[in-house]
Amino acid sequence: MVDTMALLHPFSRTARPPRATPPLAAASPPADDEVLLDAPDDRLGPALVAAARGEHSPAATLLAGTRARADWENRDRYARRLAAFAHSRPEWLERWSATTPHDPDVRLLKAQLAVDQAWRSPARAELLREVSPLITAAARGDDRDPVPWRIALDHARGTNAGPKYFGELWEAALRRAPHHYGCHVAALRYLAASWQGSHRECFDFADRAAQDAPADSLIQALPARAALAYLTEARGVEVPRDRLDAAADRAIALSARFPVAAPWPAEIRNKLMYVLVRLERWQDALTEVHRIGPYATSFPWDRLSDDPLALFLGMSGDIRARATGPLDPSRHPRSEHDGRARSGDH
Prior knowledge:
By secondary structure, the chain is mostly helical. It is 59% helix and 1% strand.
């Protein structure tokens, strides 16, 4: 059994008073064997199935559609998922690239794939420098597209770029999409305590971005992303509890705007569920469990366990138990990684 106790330290003495269980929490949760890990949405799924057969046309149609609609958030998600698939099954992308090498979508996937592969290597910084031309080519593919600039921001962080150069990339990204979530996450990671900045700077950046963004923007979840980084790293200057709660409240309000049990908001909701557990806000966490439905995501659970789905299921059960009454401490085995964040996540 996967342990969840390590998630609870150090906030047990400062948990918020329990709230009334929202009506949503009365719904029946999915059975464990119905929960899916990293399930694609209805548009990405067929593209992945076709790619498994070596066919690139559905992926090409999918990504071309995101450009035509300026649907940059989905474009970013789809590019990351398709590049991850191409890491183990590259034939379809190689065929696509051979057919239309200057296609903006081909260039985007090749840049994302190259950066991902370089990050997995111990010689990361050196390899990342070698893939710069691929990122430049992707950025030239469609001048409106912020996603190559998100890749460039990740690349700059991995090569230990200085703040001046990173700032130039950041300004270029903002000119294309001032509220693009992926670019903001890339900037937040650059500021993170494990890299160039501190947790306080991360929260300041995330709060300002959320205040400036529309209420339905994914950037409303950026402070919760800063909270997650703080709670998993647990070093540096202490962040006040009320600031962590405010970050969670913003993300809860955003989650409430999304359809219940839909795959595409699952990434935001799984991170929020983790933060709420660490803050011991059990009723709010229970609401997110039901909003998540059957859609678990590897991140953030893979930072604590080699079996993220098992950890998600164990935590969901503990949330339900704690939201309805005291939980026997003997139910809490230890986390596989003792609550420590894994290195290498980019």
